[in-house]
Design brief:
9 strands; alpha+beta; nine-stranded antiparallel β-sheet; 4 helices
Length: 220
């Protein structure tokens, strides 16, 4: 499977994300680096907490975990259990089973959605992060995919060089922020150097947890 980086937009101090920044970023893909617009994409993340009927059983359940639906495999659902450093692939019907069992409740649910663009060996997906409940803009995200390779180590230099070119093109628009590359420790989750959708799930989980922490920091 092709290598993918999941990159969140980090606003400059004193600034927030808005739809104008998203529009400028999308425009930059087409006008500055000649991206060919292909179609829409969407991923969904949910942050779960257990519904404990008996607090004495708390140790038997993960304290929290994330569930992720990815467009590449709509019939699959990925769980990321941070406390256990574990990524689990399940059939998408597991969501219906969880609702019926009522053992876990969704605390936060976010959609990552936008458009994808083709640039030679690269594919970019640029989109907004919105709350399913309110549709309010929570962030901006970009997926950067390098199709010829599935080796994380071998493609790292090429991905980095392309990212630098992209950042330089975007900087000319003088937007109040930039995309950042966060690289989780995949080895902690037992994932090898050959890229899989489980690697993508861990990246999205890391991004979502960072967003939750940022919101909490602002509130405090």
């Amino acid at each position: 499977m092709p290598i993918k980086w999941v990159l969140p937009w980090q606003p400059n101090a004193g600034h927030t994300v808005n739809s104008q920044i998203l529009a400028e970023v999308s425009q930059c893909v087409v006008e500055s680096i000649n991206g060919l617009k292909e179609g829409k994409w969407k991923a969904t993340l949910s942050f779960y907490r257990p519904l404990l009927k008996d607090p004495a059983n708390a140790a038997e359940f993960p304290r929290d975990f994330l569930g992720i639906s990815l467009p590449e495999q709509p019939n699959k659902y990925y769980f990321v259990l941070r406390g256990h450093r574990l990524v689990v692939e399940a059939d998408s019907t597991i969501q219906t089973i969880m609702e019926k069992l009522q053992s876990y409740k969704t605390r936060v649910a976010l959609n990552f959605e936008g458009f994808q663009y083709q640039l030679g060996d690269f594919q970019l997906r640029v989109g907004k992060v919105v709350s399913i409940q309110s549709e309010s803009l929570r962030g901006i995200v970009m997926e950067m995919e390098y199709k010829p390779s599935s080796s994380w180590e071998k493609s790292h230099k090429i991905m980095g060089e392309f990212f630098d070119i992209w950042q330089e093109a975007l900087s000319k628009r003088q937007l109040p922020g930039h995309f950042v590359h966060m690289e989780p420790n995949f080895g902690e989750y037992g994932l090898s150097g050959q890229y899989t959708l489980q690697h993508t799930a861990v990246q999205y989980a890391t991004l979502m947890l960072q967003m939750i922490a940022s919101v909490q920091a602002v509130r405090n």
